[in-house]
Design a protein that fits this description.
By secondary structure, the protein is mostly helical. It has one domain. The protein has 6 helices and no strands. The longest helix is centred in the C-terminal third of the chain and has 28 residues. The relative contact order is 0.19.
């Protein structure tokens, strides 16, 4: 069984470069949205991705404050999904996205309270 925690930790470390370069981060989010268009909606982890993307975009615009650890965890998961250096090739039907979903689900597990707080903040703005 792959060590998804180690995978996420590696991607989280790489996320710092994206955090320090907002234009690179914005491009990552654009690539992630394009990638998600090819992924069937599966479970809570995937359904929360648009909220996680919106949270990062709100951080970029300096509308919403997010801790560096939360931001790095979310962006690390995004990097894993977009980069395509997966444990399971994305071209394999159904199974090809399983590792992506597992990494996003693990990231969501770590940041779920912050995602819920963001949703409450966002809904309060409307």
């Amino acid at each position: 069984m792959p060590d998804f925690a180690a995978i996420l930790n590696k991607a989280t470390a790489e996320a710092q470069d994206f955090i320090n370069n907002p234009s690179r981060l914005d491009q990552l989010l654009i690539n992630l949205e394009a990638t998600l268009k090819r992924v069937p909606v599966i479970g809570e982890s995937v359904s929360e991705l648009p909220t996680m993307i919106a949270m990062v975009k709100s951080w970029i615009k300096k509308e919403y404050a997010v801790s560096g650890k939360v931001l790095a965890t979310i962006i690390g998961a995004f990097i894993y999904v977009v980069k395509g250096n997966d444990l399971i090739n994305d071209h394999i039907p159904v199974l090809g996205r399983a590792d992506d979903i597992a990494v996003v689900a693990l990231a969501l597990k770590f940041v779920k309270p912050e995602v819920e707080a963001y949703k409450a903040w966002r809904d309060g703005k409307r």
